[in-house]
Design brief:
Elements lengths: L1 E2 L3 E13 L2 E10 L13 H5 L14 E8 L5 E14 L1 H7 L3 H6 L8 E12 L4 H16 L6 H10 L1 E2 L23 H9 L10 E4 L7 E4 L12 H9 L1 H12 L3 E6 L2 H14 L8 E3 L16 E6 L12 E5 L4 E3 L13 H13 L20 H19 L7 E5 L5 E4 L1 H7 L6 H8 L1 H10 L3 E2 L3 H8 L1 H7 L3 H19 L15 H5 L12 H17 L10 E2 L6 H4 L11 H15 L3 H14 L3 H13 L6 E3 L1 H16 L5 H13 L2 E6 L2 E4 L13 H35 L9 H11 L5 H30 L8 H4 L38 H21 L4 H31 L19 E10 L19 E8 L2 E8 L9 E6 L3 E7 L12 E6 L3 E7 L5 H15 L8 H4 L4 H5 L8 H16 L1 E2 L14 H10 L4 E2 L6 H4 L1 H4 L2 H8 L5 H9 L16 E4 L15 E4 L4 H7 L10 E5 L6 E5 L4 H8 L14 H15 L2 H6 L18 H18 L26 H9 ...
Parallel strand pairs: 10-12, 10-13, 11-12, 19-20, 34-37, 35-36, 35-37
Antiparallel strand pairs: 1-7, 2-3, 2-6, 4-5, 5-6, 8-9, 13-14, 15-16, 17-18, 20-21, 22-23, 22-28, 23-24, 24-25, 26-27, 27-28, 29-30, 31-32, 33-34, 38-39, 38-44, 39-40, 40-41, 42-43, 43-44
């Protein structure tokens, strides 16, 4: 029984006490005044009566009611029902003013001063019961009595309220007498009423129904719930869902269960309380145990920043103060929103439960939804009434919890039954068996406080049960069957809802509420009410005392609780694994596991070995692991199973694999099953020494997990206690069981047994009770000793001298649950591990012992305290444990000693790598596993054997990182796997933790990525100590980023490895150092800081240079007009020894090239011929003009050295324009420079306002610059010829001259090109015009109409990408228009006058960066023009390369289609970057070819500029496609002109942060693309390009180190590239190395090389034409990268030796399997020519002849081949590869010659038929000059010979050029209009030809063709007249036709 109300309180406004201007409340009266003993009075009620603060208001407010909840210190909740009304009083503020306190009144001018104000007064009932409606009625009645002045005294009413006693819950027993049945009591005096209360009423109602009256003519029924464990919710849950919606409430529900902070906002206090009550109700059967304040007063808002979880309600008035709460979920009840902060993650219910719950809820709340789409919906579908709906929603959540917690009772461990049950929940087992170990939500719920309360409340097996117990025990099966069918679920939910409703409203029909309300007029009248009176304390107290006395004398009410055994429900195993993976549980796998174990125990080791890999794979599935433990159990006899070494080895491997693959939770189930087994399986090591399996499975983190040991311990204790009582039970029940027979099959569970014992406990006598308690206690104690032993077994390492345990940190941290397992391989191999060097051997074994003892002590303390072990026993345990550990250590020492004598496990032998000359090991090999990355080739999935994972060692040398080992797969074990890359190419290193698929477990690993497109994922073997792995990382880092470039391998080669790690600081070349210092000093004299605009990218500095360097790092600009001559003469600055060094500059590559190109000589200035346009300037010989340029530069003849100093200021990094190449035919020159400084750009291109043709800039530098460009233009022969008439490139029909024709032929094409580079320009306003008339006239070009039409309609190509999307508005040269030769209409609409308007030729194009050229404008008569393009940024290249590496060498396999190779390749944009560079280069080639010079002036002039300039030269000049030429090109453009190799390659510590940017690799890739399209034009092969690409990144040679010639001179390495005398085998220059190799073998040579004279290459540049370079993708695992040639030759020698040894006369197969990614294809399958040359050498060697050099042999063959082919004149493709290359050479020359020198109209004819594409006849490859038409080649396989011939028409028709094809197969001569033409225009059958004779010129034949070029073909019908380009051509045609005739 319980009091309905504990206290009645009157709280009013405190007029005397205002704090800081805020009103306070105070308790005016309280009854009873003394606290009840069982329920102390809660403090702070006055705050909760007015949660928003006590305030006076000018108008009376309506009375209000709400219930606040206070929680006391014992976690009991007190419900405070507050009824508030407003009483009028005189304004205290006005009184103050009257008394003269005017100052105060002034301070508060904002308050409205009304004479009458109203103060709040609250009537409060404090109760431990939550009867909101009853309280509302009672308080309302008291108010009514006061307001309407009813006859009943207030004291009586309040006394009655405080003495009313009702049962807490009822309904269970009918015979119990009602204590407070007031049905028949009218208004009677209090005492009589009390007597009536305490006597039995005439009617015995059920206990759940109470009628009460307070003696004021009122009556109300209180229905108490039948079962008080179920919450009472009224309609609050349904209201909550209506306010917030299903999803929001589910979020709140999950948040509350996972212990988040929840805050409700509403402007209604009662709604806040209801919402909180509703949320708690749906959490049943879990009870919320954190802060719960449904209404929080404003003064206590700081509570919201508490760190613990809470459910709190706050009035919306305080919304702004809740804004800054970062970790609180805010539910706004009025607005219907739930706001979850970004930083919070709420774990939701696991699927499919979440979906099912949402569906069920929507069927309850919105039943119409289901029928919304039906054509004939049912008539009446209304949701249930609110109260019913409330119960239905709660039923859904009950149903949900039944599913979540099903089977929980099977995971309860009962560890003590007497005197009190002690119960623990085994979380791991529950989650493991439910297959929910990964479920975040359930994990958090089970770890939460609410669930701990749930276990302690519902765990006991013998107690009263409720609806939830029944549901989870008896209806799980039903729930499972119905969950798929929503309607059946709904029926079930309705049944549950009915029970819930019945519990809350046992008599729904009874509702006798008769409570008076205040009359209308009393509420509304404005008349002042009398204040609430002061009550008579004595009268009320008398009531209370009287009631208490009566209750004492009344007989005690004993409510016998109905206890019963709690049913456990179906077993867990039955209810899970429906979603289990079929594969994992397949019977076949289990069979394999069983068979393997059987083979092991039958000693069939070979069979077991075969099955082993399959077993280890199968053990990934949980069932297989369980199966393994069951099978092994069967082989244990009396706790022991002795095995031999091999059996032991296999069993341990399987155990390790089983433990290793366990997930974090599941491992407890498996490890628990294995724990007895690891102490059972053993092997005999020697006399009396036995090694158990536990010593080999220790290194799993599960053994250091305290929770695991606790769960195991409790499980075992439960079994033993069960056994204890089963014995007693067995003795009693033997006789009964015999009678019952097999009726009782199922084994009784521990909980059932405990329930029975609890039931019997009260019936036992004291002695028996004590005996049972002692038995249980000693059972727990003995188990504790047993576990101390077990734990020492698994925690003490075999070799106790090693601190492995301490390092693995498991023991340091009790709660550590980690998954990075490391496995001990079997004991023997530990003996020789590296740990012996790790410094641990001196460590005392005691520290291992101590840590183990501490760990076991902690465990024992915890479990013994929980399971009630006595203190004496606990002390005994603590003294025992150190002895147990010490004893075990002694046993282990013997085992360890003996195990060392065992033959170690057959781990693969570590193979030593072959090293290069001069390469040395920095660290010896460490045993590692090379594991799979994302490349599939080595896995065996794509055919071929699984080469990876492999086991071997990793070696760190001064040059490379090398892995060498053998595949882990036993069937592939013969192969050797090698993977290596240069240390210098390492781009990223990150630690990874690795789990190997087979039996090894590895503690840590590294992933190393290299820019040579290699990736090593290695996992260190357990024998490698972690400090060794760490030192490996440090060494690697030190080698990768040396302090200075002198620390790189190219410099340290041949020195000892130690030197590498501590680089020498001594200078190599002192004299050069002094030279550089003097240079710097002298340069500084002429420097001031006038025009410094931008910091230069500083090169990596080193100590003795840093001070000078930092000052020079800005663009320093010389201001003096004349440079101080004395400072720059050689003699004045350097000694004679150094003069020699400087004169070496002359021998540099660029000088040789300048002389070859005729760009100037080095003769002294007196004899230098003045008519040469260019000269070699020595202005930069001391590197004072530009640090990053070479010493000698080509500049125009008439520019003095002095002005160079001024010109260079305008350009970034002082890199002013210099000539680097000249076109041999058009004499156009190619210049390179950096971009202009921003100031330079504007001053250079801004034109004056006046339209004068003379530039009038005052700035002298700009003038100098203009002069300089003018000088370049003047140096061009075409300019000097044409200065008189400005019409050189106009298309006119009358003034055609022959010298122009080649330009005109190409003109339209450049237009197309330019448009593609810049985008279409037709719609651009304000283009420049350059007519002879000046400003207004537009340019008119007079090309053929067809051409311009084509140009106009051509779409924007991909080329537009360079230009970008923005239009050039300010600066718009009409390049596109003019170059494309488009017609522009005249402004006045008149006819185009070809003679009147001429086009002016642009002599110099400047390719500039678009971003630099904004705002410039151009002169109309300047002869240069700027082409603005967008260049790719260095950062872009860097990022693109990173993505390319990830695409080509992914780090892990993926099936995501967005991560496929082609998708990643596209995302990297690498191909797009290549396309841009190639595109600009082709444009420049075209411009140069038309006779215009080009200046490439981009970025700093050392990245993109270098790429473009090099590619242009390569495309334009065949010399650069030879070995010598290509070397020269790179030395000149890349090395001398200062590409920052060290900086871009991040070669030193200084440049580490800038990262690797492969500008040079990008260039090589472009060359590779061109090589693919023109395979016959290059002397070198693709391998040559790959070789350079690899060694550019490898730092093996000095060639690609340092940033400029200046740096190289300073280090003294520029002229010492010839090999060292000390180490003749070490090459310092990559070129020397290539030369040497090239002499030995034809690896770099391209057999298809057959160059064409002066052929300009024009490759396709669209992305669709580009191919991914196989350099990025190929791998050779047999020997590593194939670019270190000495290694290959050594490999071959070794291979031959092993073959010779093995050759024992057995028949030898000629076949050889070639594996992808393993074998080097070029080696095992060489091409025919290489093979023949090798065979020839071998034969010569066998015959003892001195073998000839391969090149000589090759040249001989080629010459004989040529002469033969000329003699036979059979140029057919079939003769041989060699001949074909020779032949195409001859064939290509026809068309070119014909086109080059055709005349007049004949050319026009050719042009007409081919629109804007001219054609070059080429066999078997696209014609270069048809670059942009992308035609489809029409040639069929049987064209034997083809080309252009002029043929004379029959009768009077003129001569026309036709494309002739000689077809020997079909035996005919066909001709076409053009090469592209697919339709044959005519056929001459060779069978009809009678003779071929030399002809003579006839009328109308082409002019300027020699006579011998004519020949006739006579057939039976007519004579055909032909004319070739020249006589030799005609002879060839005649020979070919003749040979065809003779063949026939």
């Amino acid at each position: 029984m319980a009091r309905l109300a504990d206290y009645f309180v009157v709280v009013g406004y405190d007029l005397d006490n205002r704090v800081e201007g805020e009103g306070q409340g105070r308790i005016l009266q309280r009854f009873p005044e003394k606290d009840w003993e069982d329920s102390p009075f809660p403090q702070g009620i006055e705050l909760f009566c007015q949660p928003s603060g006590w305030q006076l208001v000018p108008e009376r407010q309506p009375a209000s009611f709400f219930v606040a909840v206070l929680t006391d210190i014992n976690s009991d909740r007190h419900y405070c029902a507050c009824f508030t009304f407003w009483e009028g009083l005189d304004n205290p503020q006005l009184k103050k003013t009257e008394t003269g306190d005017a100052d105060e009144a002034d301070e508060e001018p904002t308050v409205v001063q009304t004479p009458k104000v109203f103060a709040p007064k609250s009537l409060v009932v404090v109760s431990r019961l939550d009867y909101t409606e009853a309280f509302r009625n009672c308080l309302g009645l008291i108010y009514t009595v006061h307001v309407d002045s009813l006859s009943a005294p207030l004291e009586t009413v309040i006394g009655n309220l405080l003495t009313c006693v009702i049962p807490i819950a009822g309904g269970s027993q009918i015979d119990e007498s009602p204590v407070c049945s007031l049905d028949k009591v009218p208004q009677s005096p209090a005492c009589d009423w009390l007597l009536a209360c305490l006597q039995r009423g005439p009617e015995q109602r059920e206990d759940s129904l109470r009628t009460i009256t307070l003696g004021a003519g009122d009556r109300q029924v209180i229905q108490t719930p039948i079962n008080d464990s179920l919450p009472v919710s009224g309609s609050s849950v349904a209201q909550l869902f209506r306010q917030l919606g299903i999803v929001n409430v589910l979020y709140l529900f999950c948040a509350a269960l996972t212990e988040h902070k929840i805050l409700f906002l509403s402007s209604s206090y009662q709604r806040l309380t209801d919402a909180c009550r509703g949320l708690l109700a749906i959490m049943f059967p879990l009870q919320y145990s954190f802060t719960y304040v449904p209404i929080l007063p404003g003064k206590l808002l700081e509570v919201l920043s508490t760190p613990t979880p809470f459910i709190i309600g706050v009035n919306s008035f305080f919304r702004s103060e809740t804004q800054e709460l970062l970790d609180v979920i805010i539910a706004d009840l009025d607005g219907g929103t739930v706001t979850i902060p970004e930083c919070l993650h709420i774990s939701l219910l696991p699927e499919p439960l979440l979906q099912q719950t949402q569906t069920a809820l929507s069927m309850v709340l919105d039943p119409e939804l289901e029928f919304a789409d039906q054509a004939f919906p049912p008539q009446s579908i209304q949701p249930s009434a609110l109260k019913i709906q409330d119960k239905e929603i709660r039923a859904v959540f009950l149903w949900l919890f039944a599913q979540l917690f099903q089977g929980y009772r099977w995971c309860l461990h009962i560890i003590r039954i007497h005197p009190e049950p002690v119960i623990r929940f085994h979380k791991a087992a529950f989650l493991g068996q439910r297959s929910l170990t990964e479920d975040d939500f359930l994990m958090k719920v089970l770890d939460g406080m609410a669930f701990a309360g749930f276990v302690s409340e519902r765990g006991p097996p013998y107690r009263a049960t409720d609806l939830f117990d029944d549901l989870v025990a008896n209806q799980v099966e039903r729930i499972r069957q119905e969950e798929a069918c929503p309607h059946k679920v709904m029926n079930h939910i309705k049944e549950l809802a009915e029970q819930l409703f019945k519990n809350e409203n046992p008599y729904p029909a009874v509702a006798m509420h008769k409570v008076q309300r205040p009359s209308e007029n009393s509420q509304n009248t404005g008349k002042s009410q009398t204040p609430f009176p002061v009550l008579d304390d004595v009268a009320v107290q008398l009531f209370i005392d009287h009631a208490v006395a009566k209750l004492k004398t009344a007989p005690p009410v004993v409510k016998a609780e109905l206890k019963s055994m709690v049913p456990s429900g179906p077993l867990l195993g039955d209810i899970v694994d429906r979603n289990g993976n079929v594969m994992a549980n397949s019977a076949r796998r289990l069979e394999v596991v069983r068979n393997c174990i059987t083979y092991i125990f039958e000693n069939k080791m070979l069979e077991a070995k075969k099955l082993m890999p399959a077993v280890l794979r199968a053990l990934k599935g949980r069932t297989a692991r369980v199966c393994l433990t069951q099978e092994l159990n069967q082989h244990v006899l009396q706790n022991r199973a002795v095995l031999d070494d091999q059996q032991f080895d296999y069993i341990v491997r399987m155990m390790n694999c089983t433990l290793q693959d366990c997930s974090h939770m599941d491992e407890h189930g498996i490890a628990a099953a294995l724990l007895p087994l690891v102490t059972a399986f053993c092997r005999k090591l020697g006399a009396g020494v036995t090694q158990f399996a536990y010593s080999c499975v220790q290194e799993h983190m599960v053994w250091t997990n305290m929770q695991f040991w606790e769960a195991m311990f409790y499980g075992d204790v439960q079994n033993h206690i069960k056994a204890l009582y089963m014995e007693d039970r067995g003795q009693q029940k033997d006789s009964q069981d015999q009678q019952e027979g097999s009726a009782n099959k199922r084994e009784i569970s521990a909980l059932e047994l405990a329930a029975e014992q609890n039931r019997l406990w009260p019936t036992l006598n004291k002695e028996l009770q004590m005996e049972r308690v002692q038995k249980e206690e000693s059972t727990v104690f003995s188990q504790a000793i047993h576990y101390a032993n077990r734990m020492s077994y698994l925690l003490l390492p075999l070799d106790t001298s090693k601190n492995r345990l301490l390092r693995s940190s498991g023991l340091g941290d009790v709660e550590s649950v980690s998954n990075s397992y490391v496995t001990n391989s079997i004991a023997g191999s530990m003996a020789e591990s590296y740990d012996t060097e790790s410094g641990f051997e001196d460590a005392e074994s005691s520290d291992v012992a101590n840590s183990v003892v501490r760990f076991i002590n902690r465990f024992v303390d915890k479990v013994c305290n929980e399971s009630g072990v006595t203190n004496e026993h606990l002390k005994a345990l603590h003294t025992m444990i150190p002895d147990i550990v010490q004893m075990h250590i002694e046993t282990l020492d013997a085992v360890h000693r003996e195990s060392k004598r065992l033959p170690p496990i057959q781990k693969p032998k570590l193979l030593s790598p072959t090293l290069l000359p001069g390469e040395e090991l920095v660290m010896d090999g460490m045993r590692v596993h090379l594991i799979l990355d994302g490349r599939e080739e080595a896995t065996g999935h794509m055919g071929g054997p699984p080469l990876l994972p492999a086991e071997g060692a990793i070696f760190l040398t001064t040059y490379r990182l090398i892995f060498k080992g053998t595949p882990s797969d036993a069937l592939v074990g013969e192969q050797i796997v090698t993977r290596s890359f240069p240390v210098a190419s390492l781009t990223k290193e990150k630690r990874i933790s690795v789990t190997l698929p087979l039996d090894q477990f590895v503690q840590e690993g590294l992933q190393l990525r290299s820019c040579t497109f290699q990736l090593m994922k290695i996992a260190f073997d357990e024998e490698v100590a972690s400090d060794l792995a760490e030192s490996f990382r440090k060494h690697l880092h030190k080698l990768r980023f040396p302090q200075h470039v002198q620390g790189t391998f190219a410099f340290t080669v041949g020195q000892s490895g130690k030197l590498v790690l501590e680089p020498k600081t001594k200078d190599k070349n002192q004299s050069l150092k002094t030279l550089s210092k003097n240079l710097v000093k002298n340069a500084k004299r002429t420097i001031s800081r006038q025009y410094v605009t931008r910091k230069k990218e500083s090169p990596p500095t080193w100590e003795n240079r840093s001070s000078l360097q930092s000052e020079l790092d800005e663009d320093e600009i010389s201001v003096s007009e004349e440079v101080d001559q004395s400072a720059l003469t050689l003699s004045s600055t350097i000694r004679s020894s150094d003069r020699q060094t400087m004169s070496n500059i002359v021998e540099r590559a660029c000088c040789r090239d300048y002389q070859r190109l005729g760009l100037g000589t080095l003769s002294s200035s007196l004899t230098r011929s003045k008519n040469e346009p260019f000269r070699i300037s020595t202005a930069n010989r001391m590197y004072s003009v530009c640090r990053s340029y070479p010493g000698l530069l080509i500049i125009p003849q008439n520019i003095p050295d002095s002005s160079i100093h001024r010109i260079c200021r305008c350009y970034r990094q002082n890199r002013f324009p210099v000539v680097c190449w000249r076109h041999s035919r058009s004499k156009a020159v190619l210049l390179r420079s950096a971009g202009l400084h921003a100031k330079g750009v504007v001053s250079f291109f801004k034109s004056p306002n006046a339209p004068t043709s003379v530039p009038s800039q005052a700035d002298s530098t700009s003038l100098e610059q203009e002069k300089y460009l003018q000088a370049i233009i003047s140096s061009m022969p075409s300019y000097s010829e044409s200065t008189g008439r400005n019409t050189l490139s106009g298309f006119t029909s009358t003034h055609m001259n022959t010298s122009d024709s080649s330009d005109k032929l190409r003109q339209p094409k450049i237009g197309d090109l330019m448009k593609q580079v810049l985008g279409n320009k037709e719609d651009v306003p304000g283009t420049f015009s350059r007519g002879a008339l000046g400003q207004k006239a537009k340019v008119v070009s007079l090309s053929q109409p067809r051409v311009s039409g084509k140009a106009r309609n051509s779409p924007r190509g991909k080329w537009g990408s360079i230009r970008g999307s923005g239009r050039l508005s300010a600066y718009n040269p009409d390049i596109g228009t003019r170059l494309a030769g488009k017609e522009s209409p005249q402004p006045n609409g008149g006819p185009n006058d070809p003679l009147f308007l001429r086009q002016q030729k642009t002599y110099l194009y400047i390719i500039g960066d678009k971003a630099q050229l904004k705002g410039g404008k151009q002169e109309s008569f300047q002869y240069w023009e700027v082409i603005p393009i967008e260049v790719c940024d260095v950062r872009q290249v860097k990022n693109s390369f990173k993505k390319l590496m990830k695409a080509c060498v992914p780090s892990s396999p993926t099936s995501d289609p967005n991560m496929s190779f082609l998708r990643l390749l596209e995302d990297s944009e690498w191909m797009a970057l290549l396309h841009r560079v190639l595109q600009v280069s082709v444009l420049v080639v075209e411009l140069l070819d038309t006779g215009s010079s080009v200046m490439v002036s981009l970025e700093d002039g050392w990245d993109v500029t270098t790429q473009v300039v090099s590619l242009v030269q390569l495309l334009s000049d065949p010399y650069y496609r030879t070995f010598d030429g290509f070397r020269l090109l790179i030395e000149k453009e890349w090395l001398s002109f200062g590409h920052k190799f060290s900086h871009r390659g991040a070669q030193t510590l200084g440049s580490q942060s800038s990262g690797f940017t492969p500008i040079f690799l990008q260039f090589l890739d472009c060359v590779h693309q061109i090589h693919l399209q023109f395979p016959m034009e290059f002397e070198f092969s693709q391998y040559y390009l790959k070789f350079l690409a690899y060694h550019y990144m490898s730092n093996r040679f000095r060639t690609f180190l340092l940033d400029s010639d200046y740096d190289r001179i300073e280090l003294g390495v520029l002229y010492e590239e010839k090999s060292d005398r000390k180490h003749p085998q070490v090459c310092k220059s990559v070129w020397d190395f290539i030369d040497r190799l090239n002499k030995k073998a034809p690896i770099f040579y391209n057999y298809m090389y057959s160059p064409e004279d002066e052929e300009v290459l024009r490759p396709y540049t669209f992305i669709s034409n580009l191919k991914v370079w196989d350099f990025y993708l190929e791998e050779t695992l047999s020997e590593g990268p194939p670019y270190d040639w000495e290694l290959r030759s050594r490999h071959e020698r070794l291979a031959e030796e092993t073959v010779e040894k093995a050759d024992t006369g057995a028949p030898k197969s000629q076949r050889h399997i070639v594996w992808p990614c393993y074998d080097s294809l070029s080696k095992v399958m060489p091409d025919a020519i290489t093979k023949l040359l090798q065979d020839l050498q071998n034969l010569e060697a066998e015959l003892g002849l001195t073998s000839e050099k391969w090149k000589d042999t090759w040249d001989k063959i080629k010459t004989t081949q040529r002469t033969e082919s000329k003699l036979e004149s059979k140029p057919s493709f079939s003769s041989s590869l060699l001949m074909s290359s020779n032949l195409s050479h001859q064939r290509r020359s026809h068309g070119v010659c014909l086109q080059e020198s055709g005349v007049g109209s004949s050319i026009k004819l050719g042009l007409d038929c081919e629109a804007s594409t001219t054609s070059t006849p080429v066999a078997g490859r696209p014609s270069t000059s048809t670059l942009y038409s992308q035609f489809q080649s029409t040639e069929s396989e049987n064209r034997s010979f083809e080309g252009i011939l002029y043929k004379r028409g029959a009768l009077l028709k003129p001569w026309k050029p036709r494309w002739f094809v000689l077809d020997k197969t079909k035996h005919q001569l066909r001709y076409y209009d053009s090469r592209q033409d697919k339709v044959c225009k005519g056929v001459i059958e060779l069978s009809e030809v009678e003779s071929v004779t030399v002809g003579t010129p006839t009328m109308g034949s082409p002019k300027n063709v020699e006579e011998k070029a004519f020949f006739d073909l006579k057939t039976a019908k007519r004579v055909y007249n032909f004319c070739a380009q020249e006589s030799s051509n005609a002879q060839l045609w005649m020979d070919s036709i003749q040979s065809s005739l003779s063949d026939a």
